Amino acid sequence: MRIFRTTAVLAVAALLATGLAACGRNDGGGPAALTVYSGRSEALVGPLIQQFTEETGIKVDVRYGDTAQMAAQLLEEGDRSPAHVFLAQDAGALGAVAKAGLFAPLPAEILDRVPAQYRAANGQWVGVTGRSRVLAYDSQTLDPADLPASVFDLTAPEWRGRVGVAPTNASFQAFVTAMRVQHGDDRARQWLTDLAANDPQIRNNNVQIVADIDEGRLAVGLVNHYYVFERAKERGVGIDDLRVRLHFFSNGDTGALVNVSGVGLLASAADNANARRFIEYLLSPTGQRYFAEQTFEYPLIAGVALDPALPPLDELEAPDIDLNDLDTLAATVEMIQQSGLTT
User: What pLDDT, on a 0 to 100 scale, did the predictor assign at position 3?
Assistant: First the structure.
């Protein structure tokens, strides 16, 4: 998949998203009472949205697409958008839409369900789930002691041709944005250039990276934590039965970024009771248990148990990065493209 130059990214993504919009689904039949633009796939969130409709009677038109595409469509449509809610897979896309002035502030009773570090400082979006960046690795060829202490070490000669990355994936782009925020553009650009020169193994997505590690075709890969759990679910085995395992970076390394999937309320829907009820449902015990049990992400409200195979969220040694600062996606995409990681 090609990454286009910054000047074309939003326009092309918007055209793609426009086509995807026609593929939206009205779960309840008849006129929809709520329109959701979802950067999360139907396979992941469709069952929960259907459950919301069944429990509330509120019909939902869901328009699915890549998070960047959905954000671009919202930016293109502006206040003409039919969307009431934007459900995104990362904070950067939410921040870009918020920066354009398209979101309404959320009420305190919604925001206060989630710790302050996982929501917008101005209250215009709120995290729904936590997702940690990790290094997935082949446990049959590598011991934990063999693994790098920092994501910056992956450009060393011993990792040449052994590191899987998905540079067109939103989670990788958010991670690179975090590197820019934490260490500056020069160091992030150098890391990307060095990685591109170290014969990285390019894949389209995290699913492919995890599958290739689990089948012995790849040594390590940069992914989000839950893809390994999804692999175990797909194969019908426990996570400890997989060849692929998780390595959590420590000491505030950028490779240990904890990002969020999240949700924003469009300004045009500021007074829409159905939209507010939908957001409340995502942050209810029912919604949070769904994400913890079905997608293996970190719940963000108190009192909801996570998968016991995961370290608690407050024990992760994530970098001290304000997720509100991950809103410069276009600059990151251009930097990745210029590094040579994409063609």
Answer: 34
Q: Average pLDDT, stretch 166-184?
A: 94
How many Cβ atoms from other residues are within 10 Å of residue 2's Cβ? Answer: 8
Phi, psi of 195 (to 5 degrees): -65, -45
One domain, residues 89 and 43: yes
Return the CATH number at 118.
3.40.190.10
Domain residues for the domain of 88 are 6-128+258-310
pLDDT band at 148 (very low <50, low <70, confident <90, very high): very high
What does the pLDDT read at residue 312?
95
Find tokens 């449902």 and name the residue.
Answer: 281
7 by Cβ neighbours in 10 Å (0-12 / 13-18 / 19+) ranks as exposed
Report residue 296 as tokens: 């293996």
What phi and psi, each to the nearest 5 degrees, are found at residue 216? 80, 15
- pLDDT bin (cut points 50, 70, 90) of residue 25 is very low
**Statement to judge: residues 146 and 274 lie in one domain:** no
- CA 287 from centroid of its chain's CA atoms: 17
